[in-house]
């Protein structure tokens, strides 16, 4: 593997691109929005600078990663030489299916197509292509450069060769991987959404403040981040999309907390909007 192409320059896409470039891969980061690409470039450069200043990487690694990373707003130009494409757009099946149809057309026959998703079906996405055996899900975690895990989720037709390729990619990116058979929510999202939704219900019911609910889980259950803090970090709109999908596929216990719906309607989406369960303004 030489070139990794990342489709989508949001929080997850730029995190994956940063990690891949720092791991020695040639990286092309694609987004149709030039302003998103410019923000991603600035964010990655800032992160490289901070990592070097703090001694997590040396200056040579930082400069090498900058040379490895290029931005491209034309999808075909971004992926036509890719060994692996990692798509990291919104958690919406129609959007992902549309992108994968284009990737199938633009990429070499041997290219592996991976979707970064926390809940959605790689089988359904792969069925939109002529290479379902080369389609797989790679669930990265935010922030990508710090979180050690990648969930690897096989679709119905995903080949063992494809699994081995993305396991090798994860190892080269200094990540641990777990192999999961496709089922809604996989492993981590099923558990995380349940915990987060119950925390929202407790907050709505007045059981405790947001701060104390998060403090209780961090200190009492040894969670590195409280569930309400984490929901704000992920984005409450993203969490609601995940909850709705799990509610539709797994039933009543995943019904979204009414307060989550209310916050999203009000535009209180967490860190990215400046306010969610906490105020970041």
Automatic annotation (TrEMBL):
Query: Which ranges carry the 3-hydroxyacyl-CoA dehydrogenase C-terminal domain?
Result: 185-280
Listed SUPFAM superfamilies: 6-phosphogluconate dehydrogenase C-terminal domain-like (SSF48179), NAD(P)-binding Rossmann-fold domains (SSF51735)
Q: Where does NAD(+) bind?
A: 8-13, 31, 91, 96, 118, 142, 272
Can the keyword Oxidoreductase be found in this entry's annotation? yes
Give one Pfam family: 3HCDH
3-hydroxyacyl-CoA dehydrogenase NAD binding domain residues are: 3-182
Per the record, the pathway is: Lipid metabolism; butanoate metabolism
Q: Which residues does the annotation list for site: Important for catalytic activity?
A: 139
Under Gene Ontology molecular function, one entry of this record is:
NAD+ binding
* Annotated GO biological process: fatty acid metabolic process
For this UniProt record, give its keywords in alphabetical order, as a comma-separated list. Answer: NAD, Oxidoreductase
The Swiss-Prot or TrEMBL record describes its family as follows: Belongs to the 3-hydroxyacyl-CoA dehydrogenase family.
Q: What is this protein called?
A: 3-hydroxyacyl-CoA dehydrogenase
Q: Which species is listed as the source?
A: Salicibibacter halophilus
